[in-house]
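Hi R.,

As promised on Friday, here is the backbone we talked about, encoded as structure tokens. Could you run it through your design pipeline when you get a chance and send me back a sequence?
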């Protein structure tokens, strides 16, 4: 009975969310090997996160504008205190944050 309840509860938990500051990769990382073993591509919808499993899909929502983008976690980082996710340039462009370099975001795990 307990196992059935645990399975039901885990299947119906809300998606994990995290709030903080997003940044994006410098062009000097283009082609560098990511933690997943893939070459980094500024035009892919990918991101680095310090702890989510590689291969996790997340929605990044800009807290101040509501703009959203779905990205795949394929690397580790960011390594700057206070930042929770490092985006490819394409993802940052879709969030409208290229000029500022950083933006307040909510990261929601979807898969």
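Update: got your reply. Pasting your designed sequence below so it's all in one thread:
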């Amino acid at each position: 009975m307990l196992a059935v309840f645990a399975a039901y509860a885990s299947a119906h938990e809300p998606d994990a969310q995290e709030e903080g500051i997003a940044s994006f990769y410098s062009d000097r990382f283009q082609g560098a090997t990511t933690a997943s073993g893939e070459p980094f591509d500024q035009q892919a919808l990918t991101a680095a996160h310090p702890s989510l499993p590689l291969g996790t899909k997340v929605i990044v929502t800009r807290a101040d504008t509501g703009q959203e983008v779905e990205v795949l976690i394929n690397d580790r980082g960011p390594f700057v205190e206070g930042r929770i996710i490092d985006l490819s340039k394409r993802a940052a462009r879709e969030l409208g944050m290229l000029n500022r370099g950083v933006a307040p975001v909510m990261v929601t795990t979807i898969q």
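One thing I noticed while checking it: Strands lie at 17-24, 46-48, 57-62, 68-75, 83-87, 102-109.

Thanks again,
M.
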